[in-house]
């Protein structure tokens, strides 16, 4: 009986049903033969190329999303435009809060407190 780390010489792809050499499959540690079920070309075809932004609702290419390795698809749920706009809104809101605290503490003149 071959060891679990041994890979077969030939394997049948689950998508195209072609019998291909083991080099045509990526590794998969938890499978019985140590290889993925789909050959590399079939696996590439199944990858999503676009997704819908959760914020603006527009469908955009994956390159329009920031990288997030914690998510299944490897990209954030908001597109970069929405992500950056929210970051700018948050920064402005926090700056206004900081200026208000400085004004209330008497460390800032009234006319400069709201000019930011």
What are the main properties of this structure?
Stc1 domain-containing protein; 116 residues; two-stranded antiparallel ribbon; alpha+beta; 17% strand; elongated
In terms of topology, how is this protein built?
Layout: E1 10-12, E2 19-21, E3 25-27, E4 35-39, H1 40-46, E5 50-52, E6 59-61, H2 80-104, H3 110-113
Antiparallel strand pairs: 1-2, 3-4, 5-6
How would you characterize this protein structure?
This protein has 2 domains: 47 residues, Wheat Germ Agglutinin (Isolectin 2), domain 1; 69 residues, no CATH class. The protein is α+β, with helices and mostly antiparallel strands. The mean pLDDT is 86. Helices cover 31% and strands 17% of the residues. The chain is elongated, with a radius of gyration of 26 Å. The chain is built from 3 helices and 6 strands. The strands form 3 sheets. It has a two-stranded antiparallel sheet with strand order 1-2. Strands 3-4 form a two-stranded antiparallel sheet. This is Stc1 domain-containing protein. It comes from Streptodolium elevatio.
Q: Strand order of the main beta sheet, please?
A: 1-2
Identify the overall geometry: elongated
The low-confidence parts are none
What percent of the residues sit in helical stretches (DSSP H or I)?
A: 25-40%
Number of helices: 3
How many domains? The number is 2
Distance between the termini: 73 Å
Largest sheet: 2 strands, antiparallel
> What's the SSE pattern?
EEEEHEEHH
Q: Using the CA coordinates, give the radius of gyration.
A: 26 Å
Structural class: alpha+beta
Q: How many extended strands? A: 6
Strand content: 15-25%
């Amino acid at each position: 009986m071959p060891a679990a780390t041994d890979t077969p010489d030939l394997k049948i792809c689950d998508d195209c049903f072609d019998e291909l050499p083991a080099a045509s499959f990526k590794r998969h540690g938890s499978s019985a033969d140590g290889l993925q079920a789909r050959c590399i070309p079939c696996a590439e075809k199944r990858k999503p190329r676009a997704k819908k932004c959760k914020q603006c609702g527009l469908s955009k290419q994956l390159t329009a999303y920031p990288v997030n390795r914690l998510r299944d698809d490897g990209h954030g749920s908001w597109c970069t435009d929405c992500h950056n706009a929210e970051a700018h809104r948050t920064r402005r809101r926090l700056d206004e809060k900081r200026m208000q605290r400085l004004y209330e503490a008497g460390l800032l003149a009234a006319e400069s407190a709201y000019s930011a």
